[in-house]
Specification:
Elements lengths: L20 H10 L4 H20 L25 H10 L5 H12 L3 H4 L7 E2 L4 E5 L6 E5 L2 H7 L20 H14 L8 H14 L4 H8 L4 H8 L4 H22 L1
Antiparallel strand pairs: 1-2, 2-3
Helix pairs in contact: 1-2, 4-6, 4-8, 8-9, 8-10, 9-10
Length: about 260
């Protein structure tokens, strides 16, 4: 990275004793289009400064209390078109569709999707009881018609719900790569991740009018901040329409009463 646009000098050629706070800010600002790269650059600069302080090349830290925290948005939710494309390529009963359906209609993390066993499901009560790996929480979730469709053709004599072609369960780590492979086979662009399906359920919950508390209990979150990550992508038009319909009922109800 050059010191200024008009010259060829790079920061690696500069004396650290001449490095000022404004220089650090300038470097970070140039990387604003890639926020996480900017954050990592600040970490690298701080390591350089620590060496300079230890060697007594400088007396003060020009990055003192300088912070850069890019907004965290998490993995994006799948669009309706992307879900339709995946479903068209992978029919119900295939391992890709099973993995997709479990992640979407249970909102589970990959660690829990890979560990789902048939004894967890109570089809008489239409519910599944899951002990999450992260947070060690017990979630009692309903078996929706959408999930039941995914489970209907599967062999229930096996221990695990999601099985590979060799009759073995998928490992937690392998599911990330497998989902990337399955989406590529479906002709989809990169970015449709397994965790994105969890976020898709959060978005559907929000669009359906679920409260933040309901989001937390369904997805297994302990704090509101994480739950709201999944609702930020909810359709503005749907939420606005729902909100204004409540206002309309309130106003019209007052007129009728008089």
């Amino acid at each position: 990275m050059t010191v200024v646009d008009e010259v060829t000098d790079v920061w690696g050629d500069m004396l650290v004793s001449e490095f000022r706070r404004r220089h650090a800010k300038d470097i970070i600002a140039r990387l604003s289009a890639t926020p996480h790269k900017a954050k990592h650059m600040l970490v690298a600069i701080r390591k350089m400064i620590m060496v300079a302080l230890d060697e007594e090349w400088i007396d003060t830290d020009p990055t003192y209390k300088l912070s850069y925290r890019p907004e965290y948005k998490g993995w994006r939710a799948w669009t309706e078109g992307e879900r339709a494309q995946f479903e068209m390529r992978w029919p119900v009963g295939t391992a890709p569709r099973t993995c997709y359906g479990l992640a979407l209609w249970l909102g589970n993390r990959r660690s829990d999707v890979s560990r789902l066993t048939w004894p967890m499901f109570n089809f008489d009560r239409r519910q599944v009881v899951i002990r999450t790996k992260k947070g060690d929480k017990e979630l009692v979730l309903p078996i929706t018609p959408m999930l039941l469709e995914i489970l209907a053709p599967l062999d229930r004599t096996t221990d695990f719900v999601l099985m590979n072609a060799y009759g073995n369960p998928y490992s937690e780590k392998s599911l990330t790569g497998m989902m990337a492979h399955w989406t590529k086979m479906a002709g989809m662009a990169a970015g449709c991740t397994l965790h994105g399906l969890r976020k898709s359920l959060g978005k559907l919950l929000a669009e359906g009018g679920a409260s933040t508390r309901q989001l937390m209990e369904t997805l297994g979150h302990d704090d509101i901040e994480h739950a709201e990550l999944y609702s930020r992508e909810a359709s503005q038009a749907i939420l606005a329409k729902d909100g204004m319909s409540k206002v309309t009922r309130l106003v019209q109800g007052k007129k009728k009463r008089g």
